[in-house]
Design goal:
The chain has 305 residues and is of the alpha/beta class. 50% of the residues lie in helices and 12% in strands. Helix 1 crosses helix 2.
């Protein structure tokens, strides 16, 4: 188990170990959340690297990653715990067959920990030899407000209450990362319990650095042209702008096509790795893609001179 970073520079280096290229602002947010033992609440467009931060922290710190993927209708049974009802019913029948008459004894037995199914939030409160886990609550904006309200006790005191067993409290708080794509607003009561940071699209220099770190097999010319092309697309009126994840996926697809530089044909044939809506693909494919590529190459040539 690695030690927590002691400075912002250590945090930058820690994230870089996991091939995550963070600017100083983001590294500061991560460092303070770790130092203050507060949940880190990350908002931003899909694909900008919010979820990856939790994965990298777990890997570089040697901690277990516990992930709760949020969705509409998520409830306590799926997020925290539920009882193993089939096994409980079997235990009751065995007790009846053994002529156990004490209802209190049967109830105490079937509502013990051995019949408890622990879901992600309860797992995150358990002690581990490797240290407190990294709890990723991913895409919280997909859930509803009652579930947000339930999280308040967990995020304030790192504890949950199970009526049949009582309170379960973490000996040492887990590292908590919460992400949201902002499809709806998260309540202020939850945000107050967290350290908040908006993860934006990276500038061209940092995106190139990210791409070189994640896909060193890509030629430098291809990486530069891909980044320039994607940066241009983010200035267009598209239904869904490509994130860093799409930049990496597109570059990987181009490598598989043995491309060492962009061409109008390669762009047209692989746009599905970059853009995820047909209207966006139709708007860019063909003449518009060729024109954007010409702009990128002209700017690259001007920069060299």
């Amino acid at each position: 188990m690695a030690e927590l970073p002691r400075s912002i520079e250590d945090t930058v280096a820690l994230l870089r170990q996991g091939n995550y290229v963070a600017d100083r602002s983001l590294a500061t947010a991560v460092f303070l959340a770790l130092k203050l033992r507060r949940p880190l609440f990350l908002e931003g467009e899909a694909g900008v690297g919010k979820t990856e931060i939790a994965k990298v922290l777990a890997a570089t710190l040697g901690r277990k990653l516990v992930r709760l993927q949020c969705y509409e209708g998520l409830d306590v049974a799926s997020a925290v715990y539920e009882w193993d009802y089939p096994r409980q019913m079997l235990e009751i029948r065995l007790a009846e067959a053994a002529h156990v008459d004490s209802k209190e004894r049967i109830a105490a037995d079937i509502f013990s920990e051995r019949f408890l199914i622990k879901r992600p939030l309860l797992q995150a409160l358990e002690a581990s030899p490797a240290g407190p886990p990294v709890l990723l609550i991913d895409e919280l904006d997909r859930t509803d407000e009652p579930f947000e309200a339930f999280l308040l006790e967990l995020l304030s005191d790192f504890q949950v209450t199970i009526p049949e067993l009582g309170m379960v409290k973490a000996e040492t708080p887990p590292i908590v990362v919460i992400t949201s794509n902002r499809t709806r607003e998260i309540h202020d009561a939850l945000k107050r319990r967290c350290f908040y940071y908006w993860v934006d699209y990276p500038d061209a220099a940092r995106e190139l650095e990210i791409l070189r770190a994640r896909l060193p097999a890509a030629s430098l010319d291809l990486s530069r042209e891909v980044v320039g092309f994607v940066q241009k697309l983010r200035g267009r009126d598209l239904f869904k702008l490509p994130g860093v994840a799409e930049t990496i996926d597109w570059t990987d697809a181009l490598i598989q096509l043995d491309q060492v530089a962009l061409s109008p044909e390669a762009i047209d044939h692989s746009l599905g790795a970059l853009l995820k809506y047909q209207d966006d693909i139709a708007r860019i494919r063909g003449t518009e893609a060729a024109r954007i590529l010409e702009e990128v190459r002209a700017e690259m040539a001007a920069a060299r001179h």
